[in-house]
Amino acid sequence: MTAQLVRHWIATGALDLPLPGAGRTAERWRRLAELTAVDVVAGRLAEAHADAVAILAELNGPDAKPDELWGVWAAEGKDAVLGARRNGDGIVLAGTKVWCSGAGLCTHALVTARLEFGPHAGQRGLFAVSLDDPGVCALPSGWRNAGMAGSDTRSVQFSGAPAVAVGHPGAYLTRPGFWHGAAGVGACWLGGARAVAAPLYVRAADAHALAHLGAVDAAITAAEAVLRWAAEVVDADPHDRAGGAQRTALRVRAVAENAVEEAITRTGRALGPAPLCGDADHARHVADLAIYVRQSHAERDLEQLGRLVFAGATR
């Protein structure tokens, strides 16, 4: 169902989003939030596909075709290393990539791998890979949580899979668009918060529930306002010449994460167990969003935001 929904969005143009920093970033993030409010897992996969399209455009990679679903696999594990090596005139990938969302659903992926050749050996490069190659194999799933189970997040084994380099070594992390994409994830969290809180908006029947609704609505409205502000900042400085893209993205994610926590906690406290037990859509939204928002690095992100804010205040 999840993959079908994302493919429907691609086929109907719902995922033809404006690129970040091109003057319509607010629309891009608003639409990502709206899609995630429909289905959190599908929204998460849709965001990755939209991010891949933006990365390919920013780094002059190949164009994504209309019938393709792309993932972005950039996580790295201590015991799972993916390497990129020369093979004649081309490049192949060998090793294991962890936390690959859409492992059995996507047709293509942008994958980070450690270079094993040339003057940049040891650095991380970004590569486009077709996942129907016999050198790509999604490993058995170890997922044990109902939340985000539909994302089909698994480790993937690469055994000499052909790949195309996208951008120069290190470009994936150093490009301004990295932080634009990070803020886009915050937009999806906001959409998930709306989905989780939806029953509260129609079932708040007493003073306590109304108080919880007021707090949730304030948090969601604050996140919406911060997203609109951040979109204006990105569009005004798409190449991050002022150096504030990371700070802006971390602010977006912190405020969106707060909206998520408020929505999950207060909706549950206000309405009790009934929606979680008897409303399948609500129960799924809560389970999925509780996992999705843990892409946040929590206090580590807040510490980094604090460092950036402190450095700017003490210059």
Give the SSE map.
Elements: H1 2-12, H2 25-38, H3 40-58, E1 70-73, E2 82-87, E3 90-100, E4 108-115, E5 124-130, E6 136-138, E7 154-165, H4 171-174, H5 177-203, H6 207-236, H7 245-271, H8 274-278, H9 280-292, H10 299-313
Parallel strand pairs: 1-4, 2-4
Antiparallel strand pairs: 2-3, 3-7, 4-5, 5-7, 6-7
Can you characterise this structure?
With 315 residues, the protein is an alpha+beta fold. The chain has 2 domains: 1-59 and 175-315, Butyryl-CoA Dehydrogenase, subunit A, domain 3; 71-169, Butyryl-CoA Dehydrogenase, subunit A, domain 2, CATH 2.40.110.10. It is 52% helix and 16% strand. The chain is built from 10 helices and 7 strands. Strands 2-3-7-5-4 form a 5-stranded mixed beta barrel. A hairpin with an 8-residue loop joins strand 4 (108-115) and strand 5 (124-130). Helix 1 packs across helix 3 and helix 3 packs antiparallel against helix 5. The mean pLDDT is 96.
Average pLDDT figure: 96
Q: How far from one another are the termini? A: 52 Å
Strand line-up of the largest beta sheet: 2-3-7-5-4
- Rg from C-alpha positions? 20 Å
Tell me the overall shape.
Answer: globular
* Number of alpha- plus pi-helical segments: 10
The third-level CATH topology of the largest domain is Butyryl-CoA Dehydrogenase, subunit A, domain 3
Q: How many E strands?
A: 7
